[in-house]
Design a protein that fits this description.
With 206 residues, this protein is mainly alpha-helical. The protein has a domain at 34-155: Helix Hairpins, CATH 1.10.287. It has helices at 10-73, 75-83, 124-205; strands at 87-98, 101-112. A two-stranded antiparallel sheet has the order 1-2. Strand 1 and strand 2 form a beta hairpin. Helix 1 crosses helix 2 (75-83).
Length: 206
Amino acid sequence: MTLLNLAPTRSNLLALKSQLNFAQEGYEILDKKREVITIELLRMSREAEAQQAKVVALMEDAYRKLELARMTMGEERVEWAAESTPQQFEISVLQYGMMGVPLPRIRANGQIKQMTHSLSATTVPLDGARMAFSAVLLELPVLAELEIGVRRLARELKRTQRRVNALQRIFIPNYTETIKFMEASLEEQEREEVFKLQWLSKERLI
């Protein structure tokens, strides 16, 4: 702890007490913010982990079906079918705030249109792969939303933690000790003034 370089005066003491009260209120607010962000970060991290596992499972299923389609149809026919399948997906991004942290809400809207080639040119594995990759496209934005949210909340939690630590370990202790020092100094000054007045009174009586 370090005493602030201020003269022990009544005005400085009142100013320090006001600043200390403000710092203590700020500490309480930041501490609550830290708690809320921590809870939300843990929740979102669990959801992101589960969503990532879901996307990985969907991707594995889609590639298995795609590989089976290649085996039954051949590489060229699969590529031709993929190129002739029009896709229409739109990504919507909305922003919302949580404890002052901007978070995205990302969603995929749309669907893969009907194939323009004849059903005789495709196989069940290819149609299955097509639907599986469509499911992946719908889930990826949700995963991106969660991962972005986790990163932003983690950064904000780190910043908030630094501020809480600065108030708790440096600012508030330094101001508290300086106030105690000023109060003791002012009390000593008052005692000296009382002693001087008493001494002057005795001198006058003599």
